[in-house]
């Protein structure tokens, strides 16, 4: 999810009755998505080669993504699923360091984000994540090379569900590893937790959270990713998704698995070279 302020997970209701009524009428699912269409930075501004990619979904939407080729002979490819706010142009710094390390990167915007059409919801975003992966696995540049999924916050929840289905269906090519950074343990569980933080919604945190499907609870699906290795990353200073979510996911995952305890703000893992090195070590170890 977004790195900047807690309001981007569940917007501060500012004490307004209007927001409260909206919750009662529409449920909580929309509170996971805060897209915009602002272009914050493009890859060329970061001295990265890139290609615009447009994908058509089965239900008539068009998704926009960026393909970032490795700067020299690729060691593998990373499929990046971003957090809940803004769009790929504000999240690109999380992966902009990877082409220099000889990894291709593909990142997409879910429906309603950036240049992608439509309006976001949980099931639509899950469909979009799979659409992007299917396009990626058809590209000749990734053939016979390791393939990793990196999901951050909301993207980690989407990626966990996608990876578990990919493994269960024995899809090809297989994933070589899944990396989850600052991910919540479930859609319903984080909705209930955040609703409980605000006095206006606290009395109704349980019934309101029931409006969020529990079909895609991350902790219930992460175990299905095995035998694909999983790396769970979570910061003790994450002010958006508390640390206990990462621990719960790690405990629910099956071997092989790793846990990286970090000490940055939410979504700021990869500003620290040591954390970059830890993820590269995970990928190098599992991409041989």
TrEMBL record:
Record bears the keyword Hydrolase: yes
Pfam families per the UniProt record, alphabetical? Hydrolase_4 (PF12146)
Domain Serine aminopeptidase S33: from-to ranges: 73-188
Q: Which UniProt keywords apply?
A: Hydrolase
Stored InterPro entries = AB_hydrolase_fold (IPR029058), Hydrolase_4 (IPR022742)
Please name the GO terms that the record assigns under molecular function: hydrolase activity
Keyword Hydrolase recorded:
yes
Q: Which PANTHER family match?
A: ALPHA/BETA HYDROLASE DOMAIN-CONTAINING PROTEIN, PROTEIN ABHD13
Query: What name goes with this protein?
Result: Alpha/beta hydrolase
Organism source for this protein?
A: Marinobacter orientalis
